[in-house]
Description:
The protein is built from 4 helices and 7 strands.
Amino acid sequence: xxxxxxxxxxxxxxxxxxxxxxxxxxxxxxxxxxxxxxxxxxxxxxxxxxxxxxxxxxxxxxxxxxxxxxxxxxxxxxxxxxxxxxxxxxxxxxxxxxxxxxxxxxxxxxxxxxxxxxxxxxxxxxxxxxxxxxxxxx
Length: 138
């Protein structure tokens, strides 16, 4: 009986995606934010969005709502511009909150997620464990 169980368990583990069993921690790229006059620029915004596997415009919309300002994304330069002067900590906190709300799976903690639409509701679907949960609309 034990040998049969081990065979079934090995078979089930073989069916999982390769990254589903790794336990490395997701580490976000640090934002290169600086002020220029009365604007705050995030020089590596495209790289941040790529690391989170999200649309830069979606990510920027969340960040500007979080810090309470207006902003724009320059696709050519890959940077975001926020109206107003903000500390690097405020920017990093907003990015961390975005990652928790829209990137990491609440069930398994993996970043292997995507945002899908189910009717009018946006849902976060985890590719690693299969869980889904509703996310707020921006």
